[in-house]
Amino acid sequence: MHGLNIGESESIILFKELGGDLLIMDEKKGRKVASSLDIKLTGTLGILLKAKQEGIIIELKPLLEKLIESNIRISHKLYKEILKSANEVF
User: Fold this and answer.
1) How far, in Å, CA of 66 to CA of 59, rounded?
2) What is the pLDDT of residue 8?
């Protein structure tokens, strides 16, 4: 499916078959394809931000730092935007 890996392709197909409401996907290619199919998306950072907004987690910044330490790539711009959305200091 459009140059996606098997996991991304199967996630999109399963989502469509089951009629889901929200697909969680981080990979850029997969998100682009899913978006072109009018699938509502979020990613890891969106889940963490929602958890902060719902009071499930107290602070987002330490979790972002752990992700970065684990070699998860987060652009500097997105890092700042997420912290701003979470009302946390950069």
Assistant:
1) 12
2) 92
pTM (two decimals) = 0.83
Integer CA distances (angstroms), 23 to 7, 51, 72, 73, 79, in order? 13, 16, 19, 20, 21
Q: What is the pLDDT of residues 33-75, one digit of tens each?
A: 999 999 999 999 999 999 999 999 999 999 999 999 999 999 9
Q: Which helix (H) or strand (E) holds 69?
A: helix 61-69
Euclidean distance between CA atoms 18 and 6, whole angstroms: 18
Q: What tokens were used for 41?
A: 């998306």
CA pair distance 18, 13, nearest whole angstrom: 9
Q: 84 is written with which tokens?
A: 């701003």
